[in-house]
Amino acid sequence: GESVGLHLPTLSVQEGDNSIINCAYSNSASDYFIWYKQESGKGPQFIIDIRSNMDKRQGQRVTVLLNKTVKHLSLQIAATQPGDSAVYFCAENPNAGGTSYGKLTFGQGTILTVHP
Amino acid sequence: GAGVSQSPRYKVAKRGQDVALRCDPISGHVSLFWYQQALGQGPEFLTYFQNEAQLDKSGLPSDRFFAERPEGSVSTLKIQRTQQEDSAVYLCASSFRTRAGELFFGEGSRLTVL
Prior knowledge:
The complex is a heterodimer.
Chain A (H helix, E strand, L loop, with lengths): L9 E5 L4 E6 L7 E7 L6 E7 L4 E3 L3 E6 L4 E6 L8 E8 L11 E11 L1
Parallel strand pairs in A: 1-9
Antiparallel strand pairs in A: 2-7, 3-4, 3-8, 5-6, 6-7, 8-9
Chain B lengths: L4 E3 L2 E4 L5 E6 L6 E7 L6 E7 L2 E4 L8 E4 L6 E5 L8 E8 L8 E2 L3 E5 L1
Parallel strand pairs in B: 2-11
Antiparallel strand pairs in B: 1-3, 3-8, 4-5, 4-9, 5-6, 7-8, 9-10, 9-11
């Protein structure tokens, strides 16, 4: 993923709307992907993961879609709530050179703001 | 403990000072990672331990950075002769897996070098 410095993409939604956050990953050899949520002053919190042998995985209110052809990952949040406001990061496990132990490369974050 | 614990939460150092950051992972977790997160960016990998063995230190920015996990539990990240560019949040994460899986992150140690 690319770093965009201080100018993170932003997404503003109304409470109750569905949110879609997108991520382009860089390594076609990556076989494991995770979405993390990071609130101000806290560490990243696991949301959902997906392995490369799948193209969709659903959790509670969240769905991750993986398109390996174009190296694209998305996170869909249903019925977004104010508590969902945070920075969201995608991460990939490059799985090259013996990194199958889970070394993650994080993509650019997206700031999600949910208005009541 | 219930989660990954890091200390100190905040550290202010004068340029040239040495600092030590501590990570107490979730009990029983084999894998331990250190990441560095600059303001407005995603975390960047620094180093990885499997039990007490440091299997990957390719992300350490310079030889001023040193990490250890002598008994396969608590880990310390040491930065010698701190520079202003070392200012960042240092995140520790642990996992019970030795293969790719969910990482549990601590809240981080915010280092500010003046």
